[in-house]
Batch of 4 targets.
Target 1
Amino acid sequence: MASSALLLTASYLALLLLLAWPLGRFIARLIDTRPLPFVGTIENMLWRLAGLRGEMRWQTYLLAILMFNALGFALLLAILLLQGELPLNPQHFPGLSWDLALNTAVSFVTNTDWQAYAGESTLSYFSQMAGLTVQNFFSAASGIAVAFALIRAFARRSSTTLGNAWQDLTRIVLWLLLPLCLLLALLFIQQGVIQSFSAYLPFTSLEGARQLLPMGPVASQEAIKLLGTNGGGFFNANSAHPFENPTDLSNFAQMLAILLIPAALCFAFGEAVGDARQGRSILLAMTLIFLLCASVIFQAEMQGNPALQALSGDGTNMEGKETRFGVSASMLYALVTTAASCGAVNAMHDSFTALGGMMPMWLMQIGEVVFGGVGSGFYGMLLFVLLAVFIAGLMIGRTPEYLGKKIDVREMKMTALAILVTPALVLCGSALAMMSGAGAAAMLNPGAHGFSEVLYALSSAANNNGSAFAGLSANTPFWNLLLAFCMLAGRFLTIVPVMAIAGSLAAKKAQPVSSGTLPTHGALFVGLLIGTVLLTGALTFIPALASGPIADHLSAETSR
């Protein structure tokens, strides 16, 4: 079992990096803002028709991103509330309640895709396609556009502008997301993922029960769900459902799709700043943290629950996992989806062992910067890069700088604010949920495991992941509103300081490299960056983790 897990992980990472390298070179062309070959004429025509001229300062760029997402939220909310009056609703589903519609609209606008409902029994085809799928494209494009702006701040020697947000959003959707999604959707259809507009099909089971077989345009939503690190499934079982994820090949392709663009952005960064080593060092730090987490979760799930080891033969924990994928593929999927801000799941995280469930939770809590969501993971990791550079500057008594740009008090204040937003939301939200009767009433399990469910839900919402630990009845007004607030704040209260940092750095002139400049591409800096990420996550969340999954693990050990 251990050898198969090692082989699966190694082959996955090798193929991921092989595919991400050429894609990163293409993304670097988008960051450069120059017209692409063969489509430059089309772009110029689009810009003239839309009246787009010139580049934007960081404040205008930020305002455009916020306005774009606000309009998307209003449109999606209207679709969900008026679903019963709209077309492509063969099952005649009514509109959603106001609190569930609000939660769902916020969820998909923020790239979280938290789902407090069962898709096949709640949403029409129109809501799934024109609402959720479209917003999956737009939320993913928004995160990538913010990453583009921050990368340009480092790549440009001295500039007051960061590009044009409307042009970036258009190019990302047309030339990056749409072509990749088309190819992936065709692969999924070939593997058996359904793509249909027919009504649900009645059938009689072997036991004689009359049931309905859910149908729908699944493959098209599945592609952007993964490539955009959205995670919202067409069905309640998400990627554990055979209509969403039918084969081992589709499962492997899904994992590749989740981390493809986040990994490619590292290569694109090195290309854009003119030093490929910078992007490779960030990618190496991400990969090493990923492997560290993989070693813990594989060890935990292969040993299984100590109280059940005598009954399970080989000792592995198969509870809550698809037998067609097994432990190795389920564990790797759980790591991939929580390393990225993608809520897709092919196993029940609530059924993992205590330490096995802690790893996906902790990957979210450190800000989902180990590859991370499309765009958001990369600019989140760049914040830790600035923090690591600042710490190194304090050690050697020099003004910290990165890629020739001096890091001043303003940048560090914005960095600290952006890094601390999500821990504050997770910890304060968990405390509020545990103290309030409405919050505690949703817990289906007592003790440390029940607290882990609450902590996981808040970690998932504030870090815009969307996966659930399960065991929590979260479709209530209290939870819908609490999680909606955490999703909004976790997304946009991070984007605002990131854009402020980008504007400040873009205006600075790059300083020449000197003998006192800290190399940011070698093994020493990679180690410093990893230590910064791990220590920040540990110091912030260890008390909460000790009350949840760690206490749950210790209680299982003492029950032997």
Target 2
Amino acid sequence: MRRTRFTATLVAAAAVAGGLALTSPAHADPTPAGTFRKLVGVGSDTTQDVLNALAGDTVNKKSYADTAVKSASGAGIASYDAIEPGTGSTTSNITTRSGGPSFLRPNGSGKGRLALSESLTGDKYPDSSGVAIKNQIDFARSSSGPSTSGTTLTYIPFARDAVGVAVKGSALDTLTVDQLHDIYSGTLTKVNGQTVHPKIPQSGSGTRKFFLSAIGLTDATLSPDIPTVQENQADSAVEEDGALVPFSVGSWIAQNNDVAPDYSKQAAADGAHLAAVQLPGDTGATTPVITVNGKLSPVTAYYENATFGRDVYNVVPSRAIDPTSIFFDKDLYDVFVSSGSHTAALASDSAEKVIAGFGFVNEPYNGSISVAKHAKLGGLEESGIDASTPAKPGLKATLGSGSLKLSWTAPAATGLPLTDYRVTLTGSDGAVVAVKDLPAGTTSYTFTGLAVGSYTATVTGNNLNGTGAAAVWTGTVKFASTTKATTTTTAYGKTPKVSVTVTDSHGVTPTGKVTVKEGGTVLGTGTLDASGKATVALPNHLKVATHTLTVSYAGSGKLYTSSTTASLKIVKATPSVSTSAPTSISHTAQAKVTVKVSATGTTPTGTVRIYEGSRILATGTLSGGKVTITLPKLSRGTHTLHAFYTGSTTVNSKAGANFTIKST
């Protein structure tokens, strides 16, 4: 793909190859009448003829159907003239969509950008007395840059043009920037003895705006005595000696080479020509055009000059050429945008041959949307509109397993309604992980399939003025873990144990600690082994009851925390009762019986009774797990006795083995 500018020789050759003969203006809106195409453009008459040609229409009796520019899907351009074809009327209407409204034809760059702005907002064009034209226009032809700041509109460079000065009379063959300033401010009325008769293009003309800026003036400092004429029409503007008017050099070339409809050849035949201009910093004057093989051709030095050379643009809604936007228009993108490996259809070899044939110079940056490569950004060009963007939404984040759910509430209303939300996720290195544009009614979005790591998420509410303030969340996304725990019924005094297993669903081996609590009390901790398991020993003095335990996993660098509950039943300990007593005793003496009660992990307390049959002979209280009880005197004979431990809150009751004492 050739992306270098055409030389003057190639331009002239393209013009000659056209074989065009000048007649009355034979250009038109999309033909035949009633033809509608998807990509509708209006505005500047500087580029209208070349856009008509690129649309595949007939321009000056030459059909350009074979070189019509279309998108990958076949969508074509519909380019509507700045003034009515044939009649020259500036008050005629156009209809750009089947069944759409009829509205005033936008005349000039400013009016084209205004119409595009109001096609976006849905307001009436050209003012409150007009008609609503929502979605009736897709792009604006513009020979000048933005008039308002903002990001709503992208000015895509289409080609290189220059602004010259069409003059009549040899006294004006050479002009300086200072002379032009003084002429148009009204302080210089004669040049080389010739009275000057300056003219200026109509209000809203891109050429007018550019020219005044180039010579250091504005509409406010322009002499009010200078009459207004239709842009790029020398026949009606450069009639008398001393006449001069700013003129698109590309348009002058195209008209005089019989490529574009003629509004200037009669004036040229009567002596009108483009003056040579002493460019800032030069000692001599530079002419804008040269003649090659009988045809006019651009002078590159003049076109590339920073004062009088200019890019001409196709202006499109920024959101419509953003592939991540819900408003993305693939057809518009295909036709107008060069980005990365994607080349605009308007920057193809065949398109650039057509562009060169109309007196423009092709540049390597044609179709660029980068502000570093001649593209520009601008705001809506509708006066009195609220230029504010939305405040930040109220944002809440919910982490999931390799996922992030963002929920938000709408920002406060602004003058222009909310159009969409932009959700952006970036990684810890600042690289964009994902971008999602969502309709204005959306209140949440979930990013899934995320790797473990730190992320920053932003949510903006947007309107036609651009991107609103960002609500920001920063945090770490991990994978979910699952904690399971089991217990077994345990006697008081024995060590209860909780078996814990932690698992995940992403092949990550859980590591780290687990904690067992009852309420706010930590009962035990453990460290997971290589299989994600741990056994946590609890205190052996938990009260006899059913305990509800909370088992928590502390998480790791890759896994979230998790927890579960488990029931642990603690029952009374089972004691052992042993007795030590004499085997015989005098019936006049009192026997002493020593009883020991033991249980695993605890020292029983409480009462011990000595029974003979069902009769209690004596009682005693354990101390240190034993007690010595003195029996009453026993009658002569053999007595079968047993000790009985009555139990406690932590130990079950238990009868000891029978023992005998013989009383003599």
Target 3
Amino acid sequence: MAWNLYRLGRWSFRHRFRVIGVWVVLLAVGGAGAVFLSGQTDDSFQLPDTESSQAFDLIKDRTDVQADGAVARLVVTTDGGGALDRAVVEAALKTATTDHVASVADPFTTGTVSEDGTTAYATITYDRTGPELSGADRDALTEAVTQLEDAGLTAAVGGDAAETPALSHTSEIIGIAIALVVLAITFGSLVAAGMPLLTAIVGVGLGILGVTTLTGFMDLSSVTPALASMLGLAVGIDYALFIMSRFKHEVSQGRDLEEAAAVATGTAGSAVVFAGLTVIIALAGLSVCGITFLTQMGLAGAATVAIAVVVALTLLPALLALVGKRITSGHLPGLHDIEPGAHERTAGHRWVRLVTRHRVPTLVLGVAGAIALSIPVASMELALPDDGSRPADSSPRQAFDLIAENFGAGANGPLTVVIDTAQAGDPVAAVDAAVSEIGTIKKDVAAVVPPVTDPGDATSVATFQAQLEQVRFATITVVPESGPSAEATKQLVRDIRAGLSDLESATGAVPYVTGQTAAGVDIAQSLSDAFPVYLAVVVGLAFVLLVLVFRSVLVPLKAVIGFLGSVGVSLGATVAVFQWGWLSQLIGIDTKSPVMFILPLLLTGILFGLAMDYEVFLVSRMREEFVHGRGARESVVTGFTHSARVVTAAALIMTGVFAGFALADDIIIKTIGFALAVGVIVDAFLIRMTLVPAFMSLVGRPMWWLPRWLDRLLPNVDIEGESLTRELQKAGMAEAPTR
């Protein structure tokens, strides 16, 4: 492979304008697709085969009404200045009503007015999902709020119909700025620092344009392009950085620019290919979970990473040819270029000598520290994000808080129990039995609203019976005492389902519990069921890939175990900050909330791929030294010394990119960015650059053991570049690549 990549790098260098032209055309095509073919994103996290989704489908099939349509909660208060004027509130509700409004629950009719009459909220239900709402629908809500405020009242809108903030590119700008500083320090040159940035921007741009275009053909969440952006930017810079650093090394050894670009692509490019493959496997492996939105995120991220690899292998050599000798210009005063000849004096060399000299204490302290930092994981709570996790100054958060203060936290997320009476012998009796059973549940229940609120009213009973005969289902509303994301509310969902488990056998009616919290419980269970399968598939494939790369059993095993430590620390820190509130204000969080429900599985997939990046880049150089005759322990020191500075720069860049996303307003993107930033910095500096050299120096030569029968069966992928050395020497083109 090294020889083929060498030829690719040389060809790209010689045909620079053709290569650059192809990427420009691809960007233009992607831009046209994003402009003319894109659609709306959809942030409704649902699974089609869960109980909560089946309830929505049942209602839609029998009433032709979209039960999971968008909901707006319009909250209005006088701030203690007297009772609300009913006429003013009803006029505002009329203003908010558009052609897409399915129903409006007048607070003065439904009883959602506080006891002192100063606060009320109305539930406005639409016949379509939030992303499908028109500008007129949202404008009508805004106008209703303005109308109430003009009357001297305070109003706010929550729910999934509320206007969501548009995703800005501030996170990417922060990441690029941090990367530029790190690259400038690493290379000592602005021109050299600009090469990885430019290639990464091209890769990310193409990936984002592709994902944006796909929104016109399938439902994608707004997190999908953001995830592709943060991953593409991070790995795109890192991959180009590794090839660029090898290029600078070869130039410093006297090679001409074309030969240096070809050799760098053949050697460092091999590591880039295998590092990229581990990330792609980890992300594409999310599809084995069978969960649509995770599959979309994983495949979009994997595609963007694949683009980043191809860009680094083709566009970077072309740009190096275009820049020519100017690559060494723009030197910054006081900064030094990567100088392999001076490695004995580097901080990396001194660090690895210290670690390997005191390897046992290092291992003990490092492992103990990782375990201690992972302790918060034991108390981790998972939930769907709700308006309570929005910024305090946002309208949805203000609406959420007003409802919680005046009506109880559970009013923000009532549970809906749907009773399917199609097969019931006595439908009315079946519904009554369900109401009675739910009424026996006292823990965390604030109110139970049956289909007939006044059984003594003959008209209400007759109306209910007529509706039951027509649609063959009834709905019971259960208002919890706790909020939508609270563990007590999730337990209430389980209690209701357990209490109604015998209803079908007793009456023929089938119960379904649905609502935001119920959907979260269903998704969490599906994720828990899928996680072992996902972990086995991804880790298994990556393990095989690493055995191929390193011709060792212990190296891949050590890599996987080290990764588990990174995940534990990352999740522990996320729990401490988001759930416990430790130092949360530093990243703009002003409330405590459970951890985002998809984070453990998503973090495992992404971080596993990124952790294997550093494993490949760092240990492949150690393997290279070992294959070329150095002792096992000395190869650890020498390989680490050669790789330390560039791996450090790559880790800082990737951490900076993810940290930029941790400052975003969207809670999902913020959580992912924070967890990945912590995970990367822990994996790079604690696991790969501290525990790995300590462990490898302790084990010594057996670290590279591989059974002979397996060695004969496995193909030789030649990440050390032996085939490249032979081909170059055979052709008499140049000396073997320097190490």
Target 4
Amino acid sequence: MGDDAMMPRGNYSVMRSMQRDSSLAKRPLRAGTARRVIAFARPYRRELSLFLFMIVFDALIGVATPVLAGRVINEITSRGEVRVVVWIAVIIAGLAVVDAGLSLAQRWYSARIGEGLIFDMRTSVFDHIQRMPLAFFTRTQTGALVSRLNGDVLGAQQAFTSTLSGVVSNVFGLVFTAAVMFTLSWQITALALTLLPVFVLPAKRIGSTLQVITREAYGLNASMNTTMTERFNVSGALLVKLFGKHSDESSSFRARAARVRDIGVRSAMYGRTLFAALGLVASLAQALVYGLGGYYALTGQLSTGTVVTLALLLSRLYGPLMALSNVRVDVMSALVSFDRVFEVLDLAPLIDDAPDAKPLEVTPDEASVEFDDVWFSYPTASEVSLASLEDVAVLDQTPSQDVLRGVSFTAQAGQMVALVGPSGAGKTTISQLLPRIYDVRSGSVRIGGHDVRSVTQQSLRDMIGVVSQDAHLFHDTIAANLRYARPQATDAELWQALLAANIADKIAELPDQLDTVVGDRGYRLSGGEKQRIAIARLLLKAPPIVILDEATAHLDSESERAVQLALAVALHGRTSLVIAHRLSTIRAADQVLVIDEGRIVESGTHDELLRAGGLYAELYRTQFAPGRQEQVDDVEAPLRDAPV
């Protein structure tokens, strides 16, 4: 939060208020939003009370100082006592010290409340998003989620700092100032206020223009941020280079950046015009006060000090009036930010622990896997997403088709079950139902006789290890990526896992070894090296159940053989589901399930299915001509010869 978060008065506050999008004031809020905002701030009610009290007291000081200054002028012009002047000066100095102390205290409470709210909201939203199903992430825009955690959370925080303090400060400052001014001279006060429309009407037009160009600037900045995010990651940068689009990308970015520059110049000039207009009206009003007030003072109707007090107070009148004229937009802007945060928090996770869920406790010898008449279709958009996160007006309500249709099979503890079949047949979907990435529509999935929906998700996922075809590594060190599986692992245990995964020698050759940063998504490593580090991470976790989803896809023969050697160790003694397009990798499977259009159409061992002459035999013949059998035997040897 910037230092300007607590500047409710003055020209800057007016400028910021005028830039708010006025269309937000017309946006309907969901019922109960204001009540939920109050409830969210309840932990800070003591700090908020003190904060608001200090704002009101500060407003009193702001009015008291000009009144005391007028008293000083009266004492001087009437040749009063020096002692009185000195005491008034001491009081003014004391109020200045108190005001400075209040300013620091307000800033501390503002930071305490604002940063506390940011912390509460960010952690709540982050935790909630982490519990959302995978379908949520496949549908929503990453930038939109980041915006909720940054822009909207900051906007909501401002409701309790700049917006709330600005409204309270301006209201009380205006009431105190106007009350004192009318008490001193209602004629001069009323006449000075007649100049306000001269400023307000043009200012509203300037404000509307500022809102339009500010919206365009936000849109262009968002577009540039998206472009940078896409072009600066490794895949995007590689695509630009391969197609030779460097000049086109630079020209496109330059055009948008130039538009932002031009908008910035226009915004600055409109803002300066707004400041100049407010200053001009205030100066004209002060001239009026001095002229009319001087006349009243010379005719004996007002004292000289009163005229000075009125002039000083007048400078505190126009800013709050202008800020309050746009207060509805300020308040609605903050409430809309809250509403957008609540919108995410109100989207219930599709998968959650049952109220009576218990930890899954099975030994490796009991870790059987059973699918019993499983039917599954992917959730609809309305079940897992929000229109605002997909940047669409209305979510697609079309029901999805069944992906799995009555799938039943059993993998006994320690067995390897292979899933093969055409692309889109449902193999990966089967593997995702086991760790409850998704839940079945009907039927059941059981581990050791326990329905996975009846156990806690944490204990379930502790039992399962997964290696996919695109092993993801965080932009961190090799050690940190490995310890993601077991944070307390020692360096010796990390090296042991790397050795078992057939990658220790490669890591040892690196200058920083375990402290080597792998880069974005592990791009500093080859595909085979990433896969073996993922297998080492799996070995470090040591789960009784393993899922391999195309773990050797997209690898050359040498890398595939190295990965297969690592997998031979990883699968030993564990129940495993292996998904493979390369049928050479699953000849050693205890059971091969052939999936087609969401059903198991064949099952048996490799040799049995070849003799049956069905879909499996057709897939095998398509992949491997007789002349390639030697290569096939060489690649599959590690799994076939693995110790049992």
